[in-house]
Each structure stands twice: as structure tokens, then as C-alpha cells.
Amino acid sequence: MASTEPKIDLSDDILRRFEKVSLQSCTGALSYITNQAIAAKNGDTSSSWNNCYMKNVKPLTSGRKIAARARTLSFLPPRPDMAAALRRGEDSPEFEAIETCGPRDVLVVDMNRMADIGILGNMKTRRLWSRGATGLITDASVRDLDKIRDDYGLAVFGAGRSAITGLAGSPFHEVNVPISCDGVLVVPGDLIVADDDGVVVIPQQLAEQVIDWIEEHDQVEGFIAKLVDEEQVPAGRYYPPSEELKQRFRDEQAQKAK
After folding, report:
1. What's the predicted TM-score (pTM) here?
2. What are phi and psi of 58, to 5 degrees?
3. Between 236 and 47, where is the model more confident?
């Protein structure tokens, strides 16, 4: 059985910082880190972090924003021998996965993009709620969505909603292992940021670098807005910000701090 512990656990402080930023800022930071890495390696694109946005996973509980640690669950296509081996009542993988979730955790389920299949309805998500988890993300659909949203207050992101309860002989497989959800790699312990614009995965080892970049970038954009207003010039004079402009901002901040 795979370990149910992630390699590292991101701090609540990091998660709170991510709750204040937009999804676009997250993808922008990953793009910046990617461009820097590619440039440092003379164009080697194996350093790209750009495949972190789930293009087909939609917000099913609009208005909810989350920044949470990923706990993962994988799924297998139908075959009776595997179903017999993996359906073990309360010890089945889906129940084991739910028991690893707690506050500021989100369960991410790889369903091989079977978008018409509804998974984890009322009874299973009730346990997520009682354990204080943040919500559920999957590349399949979700059953009993109204109850999950209204009674449990969980944030749900998926391919849609469905009354179909699954395919006979299709078992969940492994708990807290690397998975592909909507074609995006999710490693247990990765940071998931999700809102009405979708879902992005921040690799756990990049989380602090990403939030540091975002927070400075947002401040620099405020600095640019002030310059544009004061000088009554086109934004293109200063935007996108050059490294020289960023350094000017840092210098001014350092002067103010004295």
C-alpha cells in the first residue's frame, strides 16, 4: 500500500498567502519561473512548469476560492478482477483517501477524464466535511452536488454534475500517489489554488518562490499604476515591468523602510 504521507506539508501561513492572490497571478508566476529556467539552460524546455492548469475542470460551487494541500486518489478502468481485489468495504482506497484529508486539504481524484461519470456523492463527501477538508477536485462529474454545496459547504471542481453512479467493475486504486488529473500531474502535498477561473497546481517545492514572486509582482503593478496616473502616459511605457523598473521599485521601498 502506498504511503499516505506527502513528502512535505506546506504551512498554513503559505496557504493563507495564496488565498489572497488570483489564479492568473499563479499561472503568471509559473510562466516566469519557466522562462527563467529555460533561459538558464539554453532553451531546454524540460524545465517547463506550464502544464499546471486544468483546462477542463470547472468550478461547480461558484464563488468559492481555495488554497489547499492535495491528497490524491487514482482510479482504474473497468475490469472485474481488479474490482474484486480493491473493493474492501471501509478499507477500500476511496475511504482510505478520505481519511487522510483534514483542514486545508483537498481531495484530488484522477478518473481518466471520464467526464460523464458521477463520483463521491453525499455519503462519501459527508466524511470529507466532517474531517474539515476544503473540498474535492476531479476530472469526472460529481453526484448530489446541491447537498455537497449547501449542507457541507465544500468547494467542488469537476467536469460537471451527474446522476450516474459509476461503471460496474471500475475501482479506485491507490491513495496519495502521483496522479494525472485532467492531464496535469498532481503529487501529494502539492498546492492547489482554485476559484471561478479554474484549477492550478503549484508544485510543493515551488510554492514559496511562487508566492514571493506574486506578492512583489502585485506591488509592482500598483507602482506602475501610480506612475501612469501621475505622468498621464500609456501603460505600455512601464508595462510589462522590466527588471530595471522592478529594481527601481525595490530601491524606493528600501528607502521608505529606513
Report:
1. 0.89
2. -110, 155
3. 236
